[in-house]
Amino acid sequence: MKYGYFNNERKEYVITNPKTPVKWTNYIGGLDFGGLIDQTGGALLCKGDPALNRIVKYIPQLPASELKGETLYIRIKKNNEYVVFSPFYVPTLTPYDYYECRVGNGYSIITSEILGIRTEVTIFVPMDSQREIRDIKVTNISGEAIEMDIIPFVEYTHFEAMKQFNNADWVPQTMQSQCINEADGKRVIKQFAFMRKDTNVNYFTSNYPIASFETDRKIFLGDNGYGTFMKPLSLFQEELSNYEALREDNIVAALHKMGQLEPNETKRIITQLGQYTDFDYEMTEIEKYRDEKCVDEAFIKLENHWNNYLSKFQVKTPDEDFNTLVNIHNPKQCMTTKNWSRFLSLYQLGLGVRGIGFRDTSQDLIGIMGLCADESTEMIGKLLSIQRRNGCAMHQFYPLTMEATKGESGEMENRDDFYGDDHLWIVQTVCEYLKESANYDLLNKVVPFYEKDSKDKPLEEATILEHLKRAIEFTHDNKGRHGIPLLGFADWNDCVNLPKTAESIFNANLYGKALLEMMELMTHLGDEEIVNKYKDYYDEMKIAVNENCWDGEWYLRYFDHEGKPLGSKVNEAGMIYTNAQSWTIMSGFADEQRATQSLESLNKYLNTKNGIKLSYPGYNGFDPNLGGVSTYPPGAKENGGIFLHSNPWVIIAETLVGNGDRAFQYYQQINPILKNDNIDEFEVEPYVFPQNILGDEHPQFGLGRNSWLSGTASWVYQAATKYIMGVRADYDGLIIDPCIPKAWDEVSIIKEFKNATYNITIKNPNHISKGISRMEIDGKEVDTNKAPIFADGLVHNIVAYMG
Question: How much is the pLDDT for 31?
């Protein structure tokens, strides 16, 4: 509890100490307009592509005490001298009497008490308007009258984010600021830079007259630019210069003279930071959001939207930390990751290197299927439009241009020109959508393939169902000497880059899972011929995996270009890999004996108190035949680190073999809520999953990094809801198949499914982990553990008895 606590009633995490070990962030808005806010008021905002339309300058590598993007200064006069501080603590570092940052759903509220001034700032993006609102309320709690000024501050970046760093001549010449004065003393301060195409204009304004302003950082800091954000010298002058900068580092510092505040008096300022192409239209919106009532209504609408989203699936179990994560923070992270992919965080800066990944987003979408499935259809279409005609897929794309690349750094050299797993993930995504929505028309939607002619017209298009079939056929047609699918440049583990002709057991299992999904779908659609075809494919791969990939106590992970195994007892490093064990169970390839043995080996060699490592032992020193995995020290990231994305797959595998106690143990090992009392080791936000935690071969064992935008969110949510709670959608009903800790007497679930509410109680009188002996629906006993599709808008009560 050193840095904060969970407030479940308000669905918030409350940070009580601004000096967190690293910046702790929250997301506001979406990719159309929005970004992240840190716990000291810094902001990283964009509109659309973060690489090509960045608004504010946020450099995470700067010290935590430095201003990043935005802040707020307050100036009071004591003994005829100005005292300047920030209610956000950063950048002035003024000692505070009280501080909290409430990390909410789509908003952050920062409250502080400093020098007799209580400040509360609510930061959010309205759902139906593209602007960042900062609703600032200041109250005099000093007991005496205080003369006070408020100075919001924004530091802009060039729209093309990389230009800020790699063209220090051109960028300063193109960034320009102008001020538009309004009749009532209000001002709109514009900032723009020339772009490749249309010129978008950033602006700052408020609902209160701006007495004076500054747009040049050098003048604002003073002392020929050697002043600091901790003590900007211009704020010790009566007025700012009103200079309209036509080059250099553009900022906005807007001085609002509040006059004298009497004891307990509160004043309110609402600022807007946005971007427009049509000024007349934007002025209408600006006037709207200068109205306090309109801002209050917009905030309530945002809260209601998130409450409705979270209400679609709620659990109650004997473990409150599990409930908190499943009911609030995990689904919130799922939606955030779906919205942003890997585009914009403190770790992925959207600087033209990472776009929206085919593999990443296919998995992210599954995390929201049970909560708002229809929000996934547009992205499913976009993903399939970067699939190639042969069935494989481009690795990532940029949503504004729909340009795609084969790899994370553009075209790959000296490797196969595909990732062996990308195209297979979308099969699960589409099937999960159909199970939740029953919108089978989606399968008939025609989507182009990626290849285009000289006039940029698609060479071929096909239905979504045909796209899925092409994905299956690509893997079927691209296998190696052991009958195992080719690795390509890499599979899910991007950092193992073996030479051409290497084979991936992960790809084999992902292919097996895709075949199971397609067989189930085609059975439901009544296509027996293709079901039989895929059954032959499945049996063929199952034999290949079990005849070639069993190492005696666990499954292998790869065969290299020479046919030598990796993830084998013959390897000094990389002897065993996690994903080879979990996914062989998820694909159904492992029989009961091998499933049990491989999970025991995983527990023996790979499990730690902070989660399951990706592999063991770590590689120690660079090996060009292995690629990126050997660039990390042992215990870090893919080289034997606790890569959290792979942990829920093990949890799911344990539930499939009926081991509820171990599944829950693994779940709790990575539950970030349980890190809250040991946060100086973990460091990152305790309300979201990070991508990775350093493993026990590393001296900083337990340290987390790369929080928020991780496929971990989607898969942990699936592991908790579909496999531990056991409530999962099927084409013809809702399956109730829990695998819980034996000690739990009873759990309850509320799920909205196909226009009905399923109120489910699971009773466990015999204290077992898995198995439903009987079930009642609306008081009548049924001979199945699958509830039908009611679609009647009513609440239906289900009681399932384990035994």
Answer: 87
CA distance 343 to 363: 15
Contact (CB, 8 A) for 566 and 559: yes
Sign of the alpha-carbon torsion through 326, 332, 337, 339: positive
User: What is the pLDDT at residue 63?
Assistant: 95
**Could you give the CA distance from residue 505 to residue 252 in angstroms, rounded to a whole number?**
55
Residue linked to tokens 């509109």: 47
Distance CA 257, CA 367 (A): 48
Collapsing DSSP to helix, strand or coil, 530 comes out as helix
Q: How many CB atoms lie within 10 A of CB 301?
A: 12
Q: What is the DSSP letter of 408?
A: T
Give the tens place of pLDDT for each residue, 285-324.
999 999 999 999 999 999 999 999 999 999 999 999 999 9
- Domain architecture of the chain: domains with CATH: 4-308 (2.70.98.40), 330-347+355-724 (1.50.10.10), 727-802 (2.60.420.10)
786, containing H or E segment = strand 786-787
Residues constituting the chain: 803
Among this protein's residues, is 494 annotated catalytic? yes
Q: What CA–CA distance (Å, rounded) separates 439 from 573? A: 48
Phi, psi of 767 (to 5 degrees): 50, 60
Give the CA distances from residue 105 to residues 26, 100, 198, 599, in Å, rounded to whole numbers and listed in that order: 8, 16, 33, 37
70-78, strands of its sheet edge to edge: 81-85, 70-78, 146-155, 250-261, 212-216
Write down the pLDDT at residue 351: 52
Q: Which residues pair with 356 in a beta bridge?
A: 397
Q: How far is CA 551 from each of CA 96, 228, 483, 601, rounded to the nearest angstrom?
A: 60, 62, 17, 11
Contact criterion met (CB below 8 Å) for 487 and 421: no
Q: Which of 494, 551, 696, 737 is catalytic?
A: 494
- Contact 649/509 with Cβ under 8 angstroms? no
Cβ distance 550 to 572 under 8 Å? no
**Beta pairing class for 795-802 and 757-763:** parallel
pLDDT for 415 equals 53
Q: Which token pair is 20?
A: 């967190």
Q: Which residues of the chain have pLDDT under 50?
A: 352, 412-414
Asked if 128 and 31 touch (Cβ cutoff 8 Å), the reply is no
